[in-house]
Amino acid sequence: MSHNNRITENSSIIQYLMKLNFALYFTKPVIRHILEFIIAATQKGYSGTVTDIVNLSLANCHRTTFGKFLSQGVWNIEYAWRAIRREVIRIIFELSQTSNKPIFVIFDDTIAEKTKPSLQAKHTIQATGFHQSHLKGKQVWGHQLLTMMLSCGNVVLPYCIERYEKGGKSKIERICEMVSMLPIPRGPAYGLCDSWYINKKVIEAHFERGYHLIGALKTNRIIYPQGIRIQIKDFAQYIEKNEVCLVTVNGSNYWVYRYEGALNGIDNAVVVLCCPEKAFKNQNALHAFICTDTELDTETILNYYSQRWPIEIFFRQTKNNLGLNTYQVRSTKSIDRLLWLISLTYLYCTTSGDEYCKFGQGIKIVRKEVQKQRVQWLYERANNKVPIDEILEKLQLA
Fold first, then answer.
1. Which of 297, 322, 347 represents a domain boundary (last residue)?
2. Which residue of 39, 130, 216, 334 could cross-link 195, Cys pair, CB 3.0 to 4.6 Å?
3. Among residues 356, 342, 367, 273, which one has the least CA distance to residue 80?
4. Helix, strand or coil for residue 34?
5. 389 CB contacts (<8 Å, ≥6 apart)?
6. Is residue 163 part of a domain?
């Protein structure tokens, strides 16, 4: 694969794609377009458009060619996701075995916000609608994206991103189906989520695959201390200082109270009531968390829950760098394929080296690699006495 001789077969990007067995699933033209996306999406100035992909990758094709690759290209998105999931599972499960650390499955949703089209618009982005943005506290127009990531230690990798469409399966149903795709762990493993996903069906789906669930709880949730039915926020007002203990999580101190028993819809679990050290009995500062593993101590539950935060970082990084919030393709098929390409690019940036690195560091390494390949290509053209006009034309600078 020459990529017009600007990226060679010895490129680490090509080698990485071959390691994932892409040659078994995709034709050379498809792999070339995947390569073009990774190159473009990791460059400075990428804003998520197809035009950016063509220009920043220096692809010798028109933007409509890449657009057709997304909307009409003959390649199987399910095979593509299997390749990613297989690699993520391999990395995370091997790390868990060697480090003796638990595996975490982090899931959440985010909004890829779009501009609402006018009534006269003829070519609109498909499947968009109003969704509640917790970040903005209001309804926004766009796509809601369900995301699942696997992590162990400091390694956090994307496992699945998909659009949620109203009118189809509920988010709870889709999360349960995603969990059913998870491999059975050999050691401790936990699902991590916010309060929206704390549901008996989600808990049972985790149990079936050998995972416990840790998540946030709304403070109006009903618990039954000593058989009394009461909301968490009301119960917290009866808790005295001698019934709580001070716990340090990520350098901050919190007063915590541990309840074990029934909740509405859940037979038995640990509920941790938590507030900052200087805000004891301040109802506005009260937070609650649930853990189905009753053998975990309170401090460990809170520390494990804090491992959920990387998914928020993932959303921010992919929106700011890889076009998760700014893509402009219109068909649902193109959007779904673009979500896979974004996940693959993130995976490449973090795992293509000899060891795992943070995304911010990884994308800088990829940029340098691409620039070296381009300089090498120019050097070879000069040594072969290729006319400058021909070089400028291939670089789209003529």
1. 322
2. 216
3. 342
4. helix
5. 398
6. yes
How far apart CA 219 and CA 305 sit, in angstroms, is 17
Cα separation, 263 vs 265, in Å, equals: 6
Q: What is the DSSP string of 211-226?
A: -EEEEEE-TT-EE-GG
**How far is 244 from 263, CA to CA, in rounded Å?**
20
Query: CA distances (Å), 164 to each of 27, 39, 80, 313, in order?
Result: 30, 28, 19, 21
Handedness of CA 338, 16, 348, 186 (dihedral sign): positive
Name the helix (H) or strand (E) containing 33.
Answer: helix 28-41
Domain hosting residue 51, numbered range: 12-78+330-395
Flag whether 96 is in a domain. Answer: yes
Dihedral angle of Cα 54, 55, 58, 62, to the nearest 10 degrees = 40
Please report whether residue 170 resides in a domain: yes
329-333 — which CB contacts under 8 Å span 24+ positions? 329/50, 329/67, 329/70, 329/71, 329/125, 330/123, 330/124, 330/125, 330/126, 331/70, 331/71, 331/126, 332/126, 332/127, 332/163, 333/70, 333/71
pLDDT of residue 7: 52
Cβ contacts of 109 within 8 Å, gap of 6 or more: 144, 145, 146, 147, 164, 171
In-domain check, residue 49 = yes
Measured between alpha carbons, how far is 45 from 265 in angstroms, rounded to an integer?
49
Among residues 172, 109, 176, which one has the least CA distance to residue 314?
109
Helix (H) or strand (E) holding 321: helix 310-321
Residues in the chain with pLDDT values less than 70: 1-10, 119-120, 396, 398
State how far the Cα of 342 lies from the Cα of 337, in Å rounded to an integer.
Answer: 9
Residues 289, 217: contact at Cβ < 8 Å? yes
Regarding whether 164 and 137 lie in a shared domain, the answer is yes
Per the structure, how many domains does the chain have?
2
CA dist., res. 56 & res. 44, Å (int): 9
Q: pLDDT at position 61, please?
A: 76
Structure tokens at 240: 């005295």
| CA distance linking residue 319 with residue 339, whole number of Å | 11
Give the number of residues written for the chain. 398
275 Cβ contact partners less than 8 Å away, ≥ 6 residues apart: 236, 254, 255, 281, 282, 285, 286, 287
Q: Clarify whether residues 301 and 390 are in a common domain.
A: no
Q: Are residues 160 and 83 in the same domain?
A: yes
Whole-angstrom Cα distance, residue 37 to residue 31? 10
